[in-house]
Amino acid sequence: MRWRSVVLGLLLLRLGLQALLTLLPALARGLCLHPRLPCPGPRPPALPGPAAGRGARLWGAAAGGDEYERRYSGAFPPQLRARLRDAARGMFVFGYDSYMEHAFPRDELDPLHCRGRGPDRRDPSNLNINDVLGNYSLTLIDALDTLAVMGNSSEFQKAVKLVIDTVSFDKDSTVQVFEATIRVLGSLLSAHIIITDTKQPFGDMTIKDYDNELLHLAHDLAVRLLPAFENTKTGIPYPRVNLKKGVPPDSHNETCTAGAGSLLVEFGILSRLLGDSTFEWVARRAVKALWSLRSNNTGLLGNVVNIQTGHWVGKQSGLGAGSDSFYEYLLKSYILFGEKEDLEMFNAAYQNIQNHLRRGREACNEGEGDPPLYVNVNMYTGQLMNTWIDSLQAFFPGLQVLIGDVEDAICLHAFYYAIWKRYGALPERYNWQLQAPDVPFYPLRPELVESTYLLYQATKNPFYLHVGMDILQSLEKYTKAKCGYATLHHVVEKTKEDRMESFFLSETCKYLYLLFDEENPVHKSGNKFMFTTEGHIVSVDERFRNSLWEDILPGQEDSAHKTKPTELKAANFSSNCNRVPDERRYLLPLKSNYMRQIDRMVGLI
């Protein structure tokens, strides 16, 4: 009898398992059993109005759609948005307070050991450190305008006074001209503009008895950088300069395109605030020199050039490291200063990029073929040079937003977001053919957050709030350390390095905060603002469109003719802001089948 009971029990167990397997597909979605796809939370109610209804008819209602539509479609609850805004502020405060407690007045914070870091005096060849750290309280300076944007007037005023009282550039430090310009010079100018703005959009950020001290510091630093522009046969500056002694005698004659050609915004602002053309003149001369060296065949530039001979040492043309901010500053210099030649150079460069670097189908959201992707090619032939892209290239969708090429920006952003979803970070270099990181570290870079923020401002699509939430949660989960936030040494293994770069506070935290703070004065004050390549905020106003000198800058026949902001239009592209209709605001910016295609391309599914 006992064996019959055992057989009967086994039979009943088998029938139960069969019933469970029959129900499993229906349960899987609620239990989050689909492999690799994120489990959707409860979908917030759709906002009322005709746009949501039209979108549902045109693109398929989210309720009947797939995982992508269920997760990302619909409105984003204001309470959740407020919590994420506060979380982004808390992230900045933890990093900033940790720096001030454990690292100031040194340049950077080591967040694992809770100590400060300065230049590597024992190893001058350690350029990864010495190019950036100049023994001038870098992180404090770089974070100034983030304090203002977050409305913390008391800490902003305290930090400015600390800079005035303690920072000097009379240092025996050899720094990279580019890094000193975008991180230090740019932040000093941004904070000075905020302090002296008669409208005070961020609250009372004025400093009692302020006598333009930050402007004087910026001037002093720029004068110390000027020797880099001397004794070069092309006008392209040396990459490094000693703040006390000028260009080192053993200085290299090679520099990258971005490093030499991304100085015009900061140097131009300084010139126009001082009424001294010197700084803008040398920066603009460098841009024109690089532009004159582009290929006659493709119109492309390489990434490394000899400053004496003008010969290209690095013939790779791409949108990442070594090239990125050169293109960014062609456009932003025009936006700020209104010089027509800057826009003409940008339009020509953008068209050449489209012709030779862009791969994939013609349209982002329709047609067949691979999604659009910008690759690295030979500057002379346009032929593919390798199969990797780097994390710095994630800035490009944000630049496309500024010129109105929003549809193409949506696709490229989705590719980088897919990589982020796979690793919880962006590897410094990703091989799209091998579907694996080539260089696996992540130093808390802001470029994907920046593009996410700008795409949200352009489309108001809650999809980008979900993206920002993913990024913020990943940073908290994988990079938070005992005293601040740490570089990921390996995005797969999630091991950490003991370094928190200053741009984490000046850019990454700032863009996350602004993404979730709809009521911020940046969005509501009526002022026009622009962000530098280091994320420093500057007002776009007429004083920067009027030079106080009469001499002609290189390449200009008549500086009196300036284009108006309404004339900004990148040539030869079919997309523009108007191609993103209102009915798509609460649905996916990229159709779910294309999003799934991108996820598959990066090995996410």
From TrEMBL:
UniProt subcellular location: Endoplasmic reticulum membrane
Residues annotated as signal peptide: 1-19
GO biological processes: carbohydrate metabolic process; endoplasmic reticulum mannose trimming; positive regulation of retrograde protein transport, ER to cytosol; response to unfolded protein
Protein name: alpha-1,2-Mannosidase
CC terms in the record's Gene Ontology section: endoplasmic reticulum membrane; endoplasmic reticulum quality control compartment
Entry keywords, A to Z: Calcium, Endoplasmic reticulum, Glycoprotein, Glycosidase, Hydrolase, Membrane, Metal-binding, Signal, Signal-anchor, Transmembrane, Transmembrane helix, Unfolded protein response
Active site, UniProt feature: E179 (proton donor), D324, E428 (proton donor), E447
Enzyme Commission number(s): 3.2.1.-
Membrane topology according to the record: Single-pass type II membrane protein
Function, as annotated: Extracts misfolded glycoproteins, but not glycoproteins undergoing productive folding, from the calnexin cycle. It is directly involved in endoplasmic reticulum-associated degradation (ERAD) and targets misfolded glycoproteins for degradation in an N-glycan-independent manner, probably by forming a complex with SEL1L. It has low mannosidase activity, catalyzing mannose trimming from Man8GlcNAc2 to Man7GlcNAc2.
Keyword Nucleotidyltransferase among record annotations: no
Record's keyword annotation contains Cell cycle: no
Binding site for Ca(2+): T533
PANTHER family from the UniProt entry: ER DEGRADATION-ENHANCING ALPHA-MANNOSIDASE-LIKE PROTEIN 1 (PTHR45679:SF5), ER DEGRADATION-ENHANCING ALPHA-MANNOSIDASE-LIKE PROTEIN 2 (PTHR45679)
Cross-referenced Pfam families: Glyco_hydro_47 (PF01532)
Similarity-based family: Belongs to the glycosyl hydrolase 47 family.
Cofactor or coenzyme needed: Ca(2+)
GO MF, one annotated term: calcium ion binding
Organism of derivation: Poecile atricapillus (Black-capped chickadee)
